[in-house]
Amino acid sequence: MDRDLVIRAQAGDHRAFDQLALADYPRLYRVAHGVLRDAAHAEDATQQAYLDIWRNIARLRDPDKFEPWSYRLLIHACYAEARRTPKWVPDTAVAPGHEPRAADAYASVIDRDELEQGFRQISVDQRAVIVLHYLLDMTLEQVAEVLGIRLGTVNSRISRGMDAMRKAMGADFEDRRPGSRRGEVA
What we know:
mainly alpha; Rna Polymerase Sigma Factor, Chain: A; Arc Repressor Mutant, subunit A; 8 helices
């Protein structure tokens, strides 16, 4: 993050904001996709976040806080996007750099499907804290600050979200085991 670009954008410099947006887009999109689990919805939320950033950047008191502030606006845009969309729509797009290797393509697809199944079982609130903590490697305190919630709420959302994901992934695994009641093929 270039502090000078933030200051210039705060003063209304469109070119500085364009440079900020171009530099930060991959970061924000990655978070939005992690929370929403859909490329089109992540794109919409990211675009909305940029509109909100542009509209409110002059109010940002400390240019050094641009990054956590932009995450907060993005997460709010993700919440709004999630409310407008169905509970879950499968994302069939493969993110760049995530193409499976030929030798373990089948295992990679199964792993990704199991993870997606787990993410489907948790709320957007839980996904937001999990993505910020595990994908962006933020501390729990940073997640609380970005989302504007208490540390205990962050801990609770992570704990409940991870439990729900484990249960969903475990149930899916049990269904595919040979000889299991629900997974048994006649």
